[in-house]
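Quick start: what a row looks like.
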Amino acid sequence: MERHKSLISLSSEHHHGLVTAQKLKYGYKPSSSTDTEMTVDDKKEMLLKFSDEYIHKHFRLEEEILVPYLPDNEIIKRMLDEHVKMYELLYVIEVSDPDEALLNQYGEKLEAHIRFEERELFPLVEKSLTEEQLNEIEQKLKGENK
């Protein structure tokens, strides 16, 4: 699906999120000659690293840069609600010894959230905003990614 240039950086981060979700759900990590199964500890470490590198900043950018341009509607409410729920589950994973099921649950939520944003939120942004507004968003996102 082709994205407006203003959303490409966020959409690209979604790709990394989908890869992480698949690893959480199916538990394989690439190696030089063969795929090896990830342990629960491997998955937790990978998720926390991904969270530090992507999730926190990504959610903040969506909330601080995209939301002010959009009408208050069910799509925005859902996005914000999912962010909160994912933060809460991430906290539980961080402070506990999660089992396979909990990490799988996070992978499922992460994948569903990304699909929702790509299929509903981003099309809403592209449809609702003017080219000028989309360009403003692009500049703000570029400023945050320096």
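That is the whole record. The chain is about 75% helix and 5% strand. The mean pLDDT is 92.
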